[in-house]
Amino acid sequence: MSAVRARISSTRIFWGGLVLLVFVVIGGLMPWFAPANPTVWQTYPRNRRPSLEHWLGTTNLGQDVFWLLSWATGNSLLLGVIVAFFATAIGVVLGLLAGFRGGPLDRALSFMMDATIAVPSLPILILMASILKGQASLPAIAAILVAFNWPFPARQIRSVALSMREREFVHMAWFSGEGVARIIGRQIFPYLRTWATANFINTVLVGIAVESSLAVIGLSSADQATLGTMIYWALKYQAVLAGRWWWIAPPVLAIILLFVGLFLLASGLGQRSQEARGR
Questions:
Q1: How confident is the model at residue 212 (pLDDT cuts 50, 70, 90)?
Q2: Using an 8 Å Cβ cutoff, are 145 and 116 in contact?
Q3: Rounded to whole angstroms, what are the CA distances from 245 to 142, 163, 238, 254?
Q4: Which of 230, 272, 267, 242 lies closest to 5 in space, CA to CA?
Q5: Which domains does the chain have, with CATH numbers?
């Protein structure tokens, strides 16, 4: 059974990593080869169907869909990575401190985690974006997402740290004179590395999903090209009713494939982390 689970997790990691690699190439490398700034309006003839000159056609605003898609993919991935990095880093550090030290520090951090988790983030984001009239910058959205996403890894890390601090090798390290930071860094964190990576990838997905949701309803930064704002402008200019499928289909398919790839990678790493902790 363990061999079957290991094979399944490896398959998920492979396909998820492959999909993510494709999007990293599209969003990270392709924009450097764009013949012009794809976000500028009226750069190309309007409403052209896919052709050899314009691989995915052009929009009603005179933008090349392929180059705009590469630019938007890069911005969405960058937003997700920033949110995931800070949320995971803060959550891991505070969760380890709370679980390992215990006492008043644990109670204070646990209260902060529970209080933050109890507050619904999406309505607050919608309210703030509405107040800013759809001009919320991507860094501001990222900061709010970090503030609402760090408690989830912190809670899980805390529970693991509570159990691991009672193990013999931690007691031996403690009695040998090692400090708290050294014990956490050398004795506990290596067991959580794979899980932290899985949580990081999952948080990338959450960040992209929330920003895309806000952008589609016009509450994100409309001036920034993301996968969500591509859909927003396509809907605003009636791309569906006009039959301009080449404008709205690429960002929708990109979001679906990106979510599938991130889910496969996160679930594969999460399953491998469970197997490692089980051993």
A1: confident
A2: no
A3: 30, 53, 10, 14
A4: 272
A5: 2-278 (1.10.3720.10)
